[in-house]
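User: For my dataset I need records formatted as: sequence, then structure tokens, nothing else. Please produce one.
Assistant:
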Amino acid sequence: MSEKSIVLVRIEGMEMEFEAWQFIRLFFDDDAIRFADAKPDAEDFTPGFLLTVKVEENNTEWICTASFFNELKSYESFQQAWNHETAPLYSSCRKVSHEELRRPGGSLFKSRKIVVGSCICDILSQFTGKDLPYGALIGVRPVKLAMQCINDGLDKAGTVKQLMKVTGMNESKAALLHDV
């Protein structure tokens, strides 16, 4: 990333700027992160990266899609990325069915911010090469999530699998949470 590059963040479908900022700052400098609800004008354009997050829901599921566009040097390339007319460098999509919410361990999916954070961490880890052992768990009591799985009747293997799926944490950290 060049010194003057910024990361412009666009979130649609849910309010979570603060939580997104918490994740993104693990990968980029605080002063490089900017949020936008509307597309900046050409005169306000600053070269940089674009991270878009969209949360949608229909009758059967809710979907989070996060896309990361490589350094955009011109306003034209930025417009194409903003309008999703060009392929992102990295993307991550999580679909959670309403049925999945009712299964053992499904209560973890009710915290959409954790799942959205997992998408953000996934693509930024791919871009930077930085791995977060606890995935999208920031400011959350991880053992509490493991206990939700156990209380739902999941065994150790099921708990580990569910924690990895929802949060993006690695297997050893998920197993440690179960054991605690």
